[in-house]
Structures are given as structure tokens and as C-alpha cells.
Design goal:
The complex is a heterodimer of chains A (349) and B (358). With 349 residues, chain A is an all-alpha fold. Helix content of chain A is 71%, strand content 1%. Chain B has two domains: 71 residues; 267 residues, ABC transporter involved in vitamin B12 uptake, BtuC (Orthogonal Bundle), CATH 1.10.3470. Classes of the chains: A mainly alpha (349), B mainly alpha (358).
Chain lengths: 349, 358
């Protein structure tokens, strides 16, 4: 496929993107905003940190949906990932938990979340649960048992200050302009997210397993005929999506340094935003990560607004990502979903 | 789930609830509390005293209304997950309308009744409009309503939260609350001596459930709504504009959520506070509706069950060490079990208990 073909296919997408950028530029010139103060390296670095959990969740979610299962429960899996990491950090390291405890907790919480994800996959694939209802249930269970665990451990819906992940400085590379401070003197979890994004793209489009995943969602009969178990591919993709959302929650916690369980917990819609990120990115891991960066940037605008002296109330600026999601969904609403999403597949045997 | 008989649905709902409660008891035991004491607290907290019963019926009132709101949409094949936001916007509109209109009217019973009507109408309009937005975006923009309604929940909570913190904070309020509604605006206490429950509120909820049941079953508008959701092509042949029906469905659903918001404001709270701290009635309503197989009349017993659970939850939070959030988790488990009727069918087959319907 040539670049032109691709451009033609994505004409609406590109056009709408151009309109958004143009509106942004008009707004900025109209308000006469100091651009260089608004878009700093610090802002980009904060945006990357905010984007990482969303990107990881989005990549997991798109794998599940590509394979034919709509994992709408990623928001819930994120809550599990965050609260389990917090709880395990505290249980391993106590009040003075260090980096070692945090990393062990992240790994252990992924194991725990993978068990939940297997249960969810069995319910959805083996027992043909309604994917939307079951996914909502995962969210509600997270909203209930997440704070429950926090109250159990700390007597409050919020944890005390635990530990946040240290920056990783790569000697030499960190001296590079812009890229250096963004990737090589930054949270190792941001770097991990970049690697996962690229890896997920390669696997999906350039390996046999990636083709199986796509076939499971587009044409399960063909995959079955080719002698590959549709159920097995879907199990793998759904468990992967749960674990990635769990990792997203863990990353969110590791960047924040403590668990917040009030309201809709610290995850606060990021899983849902992750779903929109992969729709926006047209089911492409790199596109999804780019969309996550957009939402992450909107999430971090507050600090930028303060530095350039725009006085907007916190609570309203915090709503930008949600508004952006609605705009994006309305313009991109007609994204083509894989044709067999949501349908349980019954093998002929 | 549509192909099930009434008995099957009832069985699934019952087994799902019992199973979720059992898992809850296991969690209680595993975390080192006494399941027997917890069970006793559940009963005491929901029906153990007159105060408990009044509290149960107060929550029941809200769950019937929000549950019916969800049921309307689900029945018509539209996933309105935004009842929480519509409930908040509706309730806040009630406060605004009553506070703005009160100075124009005489104080006393007559003024109070007029203000009740004004406040409720404001909530119905606000809830309906706020729900129509995702309906329009879905019908004409193809935007998935599950995601847009959830985003609108966050936006409603954030925006109203900001409004009660700043522009609409009552004079001299240290907490971010609006001014109180005038004393004479409220529902009379006829039976229970509880400041936040009136049997009239429950009556309104029952009447709305009955009205919606009639609307869906006995009117051509209701018939078009349900069929266009499930058989779009058939509805198209019959000359029904499916897109307009989506918007209509969302609007009616949001209007009922608005009534729930008005009842919450008038009967329970008497002012508006930061909605981040208000109960998640709009989310629990999804469980209520599913438990009721999306039947508006079924929302009455399902609402009673959840009213009891929530009431027990607030009792447990005060009188025992078990974190009350457990109740929210149990509600989530109910939804999870309901999502997979196949699970029960297979279990029934394996154990030889029925399951011969197929």
C-alpha cells in the first residue's frame, strides 16, 4: 500500500485532525498565548508520564477487540492494578518502602491481575457472558473492592504516601537535546511504554500471531479452518488486555506515589479514555499511543496554564480530556470495528 | 438474554444475588471478620428498626427511579450509563429553580407546592436535555453512547462540583454547598419519623414505574422505541425513524433520571453539595435494571433489594469495622453474575437441577 492510498483511506481522519490543530492555533493566536511557555520540554515530559497508563491500557484493549472481544472492563482492571500495587508495596516495604519494594509490587500485582483477567476471559469466552455487562461489572467490582482494600489496610480510602518510581538516567543519551530529558532521564515506565508500543505494533502487523489475532476478530471461520483455535487466540488477547490495563494502573500508581480511592478512584476514567484512544488510533498501537499522548497532554495543561497566567479553575481544566473524548468520538464515531466483535464463536467440532 | 422465559430470568436474578452475597461473606471471613455478625448487621441495618426501614425505603425510592431510567434505555437497546450525570444535573437544576423562584412566591404550603412542581419540572427538563446530547451524538455522529455518557458523568460531577464550590456556594457556607431550600419546600412526613424519607416520595417512584411500564407496553411510541432498538430494519419498514427514536429514548430516560435527582434534592438533602461525594445511585441503577431484566415494574422489587443493601451498608459503616465499600463490591458481583446466564444453565445441567428448557 502506498502512502497515497493510506492518505486517501484516512482522508476524513486527517481532515478532522487538521481542523482540530487549526482551531487550536486560532485559539492560541486569538488569546495571544506565549507558545514557548506553554509547550515546554517539562510539559511534554509530564504529558508522557500521564499518557503512559492510558497508552498501555489502550494497547491491551485494542488487542482484545482485534481478536473479537470488547474488553470494556479495562477501567476496572486499572483500578485492580493500582490498588494491588499500592497494597503490595505497603505489605513488602511498609512505611519506608523503597524502589525494590515498588518494582516487586508491580510484578506481583500483574500476577494477581492476570488471575482476574483469566476469570474474566473464561466468563466472556467459555460462558458467553454479555461483554458489555460483564465489562461494566469489572468496573463496579473495582470501584467497590479497590477502596474496600484501602480501608482494610489503611483505615481510609486513600493510602498514606508510599513511594514513587525514580527516574532512570541513561548516561550519554540523557545529554541529547529534547529526547534526552524526555526518554533517557525520565520514568523507566515511560520508556517501557514506548517499548511495549513498538513491540505491540510489530507483533500485530508483522508476526503470524498478530495475523491470528486479527483473523479471530475479522473472520473466525477462516482461522478455524486453518486449524487454529479461535478460543485460544481470544483467551490470550483478553488476558493480555487485562494485564496491560493492570500495568497501566500500576504505572499510574508508581508515578503518583500513593493510592487515592475517593470518588471514582485515582483511575478516574483513564480506562475509558484508553478505549477511545485506540478507536482514535484506528486500532493501531502507535496511533493509540499518540492519542494517549494527546489526552495525557490535556490532563497536564493545568500546570502550563498556571505558569503562563491563565486563571481557569482546576476542576474545569480537569474536564478537558473528557470533553476531548466526546469530540473525538463524534468525529471518529464511524470507525470500522472488527466484524466479529462481541459475537461468541462456536467451533464446528 | 432476551430469549429467556420469565421463570428463567427470575432464577438467574435470584441465584446471581445469592451468589454475590455468598462471595461477600467469604470476603468478610477471609479478611478476618465474623460472617455471622456481618449477616446479622445486614438484616439489622436494612429492616431491623423503624429507622432502618425508613432508610431502606429512602434508598429504594432512588433506586426505583434510577433503575427505571436505565431500563427505558436498555429496553430500547441504548446503553445509557450516564444516569448518574443526569441525576446530578437534574438535582442541581431543582436547587437552582427553587432558589430563584422562591422570592417571587408567597411563603407557606401553597408556595411550597408550587416550588416543588417548579423544581421537579426543572430537573425533568435538565435531565432530559443532558441525556439527549449523547443520544444525538450517537444517532447522527455514531459516537458510542457507553463512552460518551460515562464522560458526561465525569463532566457533570466536575462542573456541578465547581459551581457549588464557587459561583453558587451559599452565603457563609464553610463547606462547598449551595444555600438550603426554604423550610416549607419538602415532602411531608406521613408515616415514618425520618427527616429524609417521605412515603410520598416512594409513591412518586411507584407511579413513575407504572407510567413507564404503560408507556413501553401500551403506546405506539413505546412500541416503536423498543422495536427500533432491537430490529432496526423492521422499524425502518414500518416508517419509524430509528435515529429519532434513539434521541427520544435517551431523552425519556434522562427525564426519569432528572425526577430521581429532584427527589434526592427535595426529600433527602435539601441543598446541593459536591456531587463527587454523593452516592453512585446512577451506577447501581444499572444493576437494578439488569436484575429486573430491564422491566420497569421489575425495578420495584430490585430497587427494594438494593435499597436494603445500601441501607445495610450505611449501618455497617457506622456500627461495625467491616468497610462499607464491600456492599459496592457485592453490587458489582451481582452485575457480573447476571452477565453470564449461560454459567447457571451449564451448572444446572451438570447438577441435574432443571436446565432442560433447551
Amino acid at each position: 500500500m502506498t502512502v497515497l492510498d493510506r492518505a486517501a483511506r484516512n482522508r476524513v481522519r486527517l481532515g478532522a485532525g487538521a481542523v482540530i490543530v487549526l482551531l487550536g492555533v486560532i485559539l492560541i493566536t486569538w488569546l495571544d498565548l506565549p507558545l514557548s511557555d506553554l509547550f515546554t520540554v517539562g510539559f511534554l515530559s509530564r504529558s508522557l508520564q500521564a499518557a503512559a497508563p492510558i497508552a498501555l491500557t489502550a494497547i491491551g484493549g485494542l488487542y482484545a477487540e482485534k481478536s473479537g472481544v470488547f474488553n470494556i472492563g479495562v477501567e476496572g482492571f486499572m483500578i485492580f492494578g493500582a490498588v494491588n500495587t499500592a497494597a503490595l508495596t505497603w505489605l513488602i516495604g511498609g512505611e519506608t518502602a523503597g524502589q525494590g519494594a515498588l518494582w516487586m509490587a508491580i510484578l506481583a500485582s500483574l500476577v494477581v491481575v492476570s488471575v482476574y483477567a483469566v476469570l474474566f476471559a473464561v466468563l466472556v469466552i467459555r460462558y458467553k457472558a454479555d461483554q458489555i455487562v460483564a465489562g461494566l461489572a469489572v468496573w463496579f467490582i473495582g470501584l467497590g473492592f479497590g477502596p474496600f482494600m484501602a480501608v482494610l489496610l489503611w483505615g481510609s480510602r486513600n493510602s498514606p504516601g508510599l513511594v514513587s518510581v525514580d527516574n532512570l538516567t541513561v548516561p550519554g543519551l540523557s545529554e541529547l537535546p529534547v529526547v534526552g530529558p524526555l526518554l533517557f532521564d525520565a520514568s523507566p515506565l515511560v520508556l517501557l511504554t514506548v517499548l511495549v508500543t513498538v513491540g505491540a505494533w510489530v507483533v500485530l502487523y508483522h508476526t503470524r500471531y498478530g495475523y491470528w489475532i486479527q483473523a479471530a476478530g475479522e473472520n473466525p471461520e477462516a482461522l478455524d479452518t486453518a486449524g487454529v483455535s479461535v478460543a485460544r487466540v481470544r483467551y490470550a488477547a483478553v488476558v493480555f488486555s487485562g494485564v496491560m490495563a493492570g500495568l497501566g494502573g500500576a504505572v499510574l500508581l508508581a508515578h503518583a506515589g500513593s493510592f487515592t480511592g475517593t470518588g471514582d478512584t485515582m483511575v478516574n476514567g483513564r480506562g475509558w479514555i484508553g478505549i477511545v484512544a485506540y478507536l482514535f488510533g484506528n486500532y493501531n498501537p502507535i496511533g493509540a499511543a499518540a492519542a494517549a499522548l494527546l489526552f495525557g497532554g490535556l490532563d497536564m495543561l493545568q500546570i502550563q496554564f498556571q505558569t503562563v497566567g491563565i486563571d481557569l479553575p482546576n476542576r474545569l481544566v480537569n474536564l478537558f480530556p473528557y470533553l476531548a473524548v466526546i469530540v473525538v468520538l463524534t468525529i471518529w464515531g464511524s470507525t470500522r470495528v472488527p466484524s466479529s466483535v462481541g459475537e461468541p464463536y462456536e467451533s464446528e467440532e | 438474554m432476551l430469549k429467556m422465559s420469565f421463570i428463567e430470568r427470575l432464577a438467574v436474578s435470584t441465584v446471581a444475588t445469592v451468589l454475590a452475597l455468598l462471595v461477600g461473606l467469604v470476603v468478610v471471613a477471609v479478611t478476618g471478620y465474623d460472617p455471622v455478625v456481618f449477616s446479622r448487621n445486614l438484616l439489622e441495618g436494612s429492616v431491623g428498626s423503624e429507622a432502618a426501614i425508613a432508610r431502606t425505603l429512602m434508598f429504594t425510592t432512588l433506586f426505583i427511579l434510577t433503575g427505571v431510567s436505565v431500563a427505558i434505555a436498555f429496553r430500547a437497546g441504548v446503553f445509557n450509563i450516564g444516569v448518574q450525570g443526569q441525576f446530578v444535573i437534574g438535582g442541581f437544576a431543582t436547587v437552582l429553580a427553587v432558589l430563584k423562584t422562591a422570592p417571587l412566591l408567597p411563603e407557606g404550603t401553597i408556595g411550597g407546592v408550587v416550588l416543588l412542581i417548579v423544581g421537579t419540572l426543572a430537573a425533568i427538563v435538565a435531565g432530559g436535555v443532558y441525556a439527549a446530547v449523547p443520544g444525538i451524538l450517537k444517532a447522527y455522529g455514531g459516537a458510542n453512547e457507553i463512552v460518551t455518557t460515562i464522560m458526561l458523568n465525569f463532566i457533570a460531577i466536575g462542573a456541578v462540583g465547581w459551581l457549588v464550590e464557587g459561583p453558587f456556594r451559599g452565603e457563609g457556607q464553610s463547606a462547598p454547598n449551595t444555600e438550603r431550600l426554604p423550610e416549607y419546600v419538602g415532602l411531608p412526613q406521613l408515616i415514618y419519623d425520618s427527616p429524609s424519607f417521605s412515603i410520598i416520595g416512594l409513591g412518586i417512584a411507584l407511579a413513575v414505574a407504572a407510567l413507564i411500564a404503560v408507556l413501553l407496553r401500551r403506546t405506539s411510541f413505546g412500541y416503536d422505541m423498543v422495536t427500533s432498538g432491537h430490529q432496526e430494519s423492521a422499524a425502518g419498514y414500518a416508517g419509524v425513524d430509528a435515529k429519532r427514536m434513539i434521541v427520544a429514548t435517551m431523552t425519556v430516560s434522562g427525564m426519569v433520571a432528572g425526577i430521581a435527582g429532584a427527589v434526592f434534592t427535595i426529600m433527602i438533602q435539601g441543598y446541593y453539595s459536591d456531587p463527587a461525594g454523593i452516592g453512585t445511585y446512577g451506577y447501581d441503577a444499572i444493576a437494578v435494571s439488569l436484575l429486573a431484566a430491564n422491566n420497569p415494574l421489575g425495578a420495584i422489587p430490585a430497587g427494594l433489594l438494593f435499597g436494603g443493601l445500601d441501607s445495610a451498608g450505611s449501618y455497617i459503616g457506622i456500627s461495625s469495622d467491616v468497610p462499607a465499600q464491600l456492599i459496592d463490591g457485592i453490587i458489582g458481583l451481582v452485575v457480573l453474575f447476571i452477565s453470564a446466564p449461560e454459567l447457571f444453565r451449564m451448572a444446572a445441567k451438570r447438577t441435574g437441577l432443571g436446565g432442560d428448557e433447551q
